[in-house]
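Review box. Two proteins, two foldings.
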Amino acid sequence: MAFFWGSLIFNQIMKLSFKKYDLLSKFAIFSVLTLVGYYLSKIVTLPMSFNSALGSMLFFFAGYLIRRYKKLFDQLPLYAYLIFLASWTYVATLGLFLIENMAAPNIFLNLISSVADCLCLIKLSMIIDSWLVKKDKYKFRQEILLIGSGSLAILCFHLIDLDNISVWTILLKKLNDTVPYWFAIMIGNIYRIIFAYLVVKIIPFVPLLKSCFFPRKSIKK
């Protein structure tokens, strides 16, 4: 719901046109909305994840800037990505990735690190994609692209698994008594990868779910 409302609000604001300082004006609007969402969450929890939708406005705007100035980001030196990686690691270590409920102690640090990790993952994806093309691994590349296109479905069903099915929790409890903790985590991560792959493979064949998670594929040209 946060993604839905966030996309809706973001798209409506981006339709606005300012004669002067267009991007700066929109940045100011998104900054205000982000602060409203963050501080409002400390007072009241709005329905349908509206707090998170407001609080993620700067994140949406950052994504827009990355896409608009793609060539500039493509030319960033290696040390810039090392800084992004360090920021990502630092915040992840502190456990501040709480944008879904606006519970992060420092929302700006949270957002900056979120953008940093996105840039790292984008760069890593580009490197992997170039390598796959170079090695003629087109079939494997298509499978990776399929998983990427189904990221929203993967996220939703991953949350369903965590909150309701709880296979991950059951696995950890069963394995913790017999194998080292690191091995249990590794098995759990393998399960998550298999689960994600099955989701993007099965969902396109389920009519209603296909329309929800793969709307573009559902529209016949």
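Next protein.
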Amino acid sequence: MNVLAFPPVPGVPPKPWRTNSGYDGLTPQALATYRAAWKEYEQALRDWRAACDNVAGQAARLLIAQGFPAEVKVWTRSRNKGRMTRALVMALRDFGPLMEVTPSLWLTDEEDWLRRADQRERQAQQEQERNALRDRAIAYLLERGKVYGVEFVAEDAEAMALRLVGEERILGLRKAEPWHEFNGFNCNDFGDRDCKGWDGESRRCQCGNRRVSWEIEGTFENPRVYGEAY
């Protein structure tokens, strides 16, 4: 008696990071390794399907050559394993694909988890940097004789340090130049005005067209000072 059987179906690559508690061990490198293993799995599926087609062809040729004998047993994965096949149409149907396996590499959950983890890591890093900047601002103020708890507290240390550094820079700019350009300086666009700019102290520019004030931005370690019309 001739017995034909399909080859075993390739196993799906496991996700090593999947645990009951979530995604322990999930990293971009682990995801890349899994994707590479999945590519190998897809190729194994193609090879498996080709092997199934070959078995089906052997069965069909055998049935044709022997006139569809009743003793040819066809092994399938259906509940009727070992049933007797008496017609070529039935044989070809039984030897069709055992299962429709459609490879899918949807890893949306894992990628979302990695994005959130990366975001949490960036937020933690930013928080550490903010805390370090705050501590340096506190040290800066203490070096200049400011009293902690009386003149400032930790929450406003950076803002006070930035204001002090900015005011020092403004004083230096005033001493260096009598007139300063500023954002929104368009006085000379009008033919009847000849404005030199802003002296850095008055509320208006030299011609009186624009109201101007100092703006201080950035951090006390990297401040930016400029005049702004409003």
